[in-house]
Amino acid sequence: MKAVTDYLQSFGIPEKDIRVNKMGDMVHVAMPIKTANAMLKTEFALFRSAAQRDVALPRVTKPYYLPEEIAQHVQIVADIVRFPSLRGGPISVGESQE
Known about the structure:
Mean pLDDT: 86
Strand content: 15-25%
Largest sheet: 3 strands, antiparallel
Low-confidence stretches: none
Number of helices: 3
Shape: globular
Strand order of the largest sheet: 4-3-5
Order of helices and strands: HEEHEEHE
């Protein structure tokens, strides 16, 4: 886990924005989209519900990448590819937020 948290901090993510669960097997991170783009070597865009314009989800538009020395510790980078079920209409693509 230390390799992963050190990697996150190497991109300027403060320790207060990195949360490791009690089991020590999952990390939740808050970071700007610009940082996530650089760290994962990808591009995020904001997707909005056509019916619920106040709901905006950042999701990747290209494959993401982790260096091998980090990828060996990571099973999945969650909540950047799939969309949750939103009631009330289709999703429309918005502008990227940086």
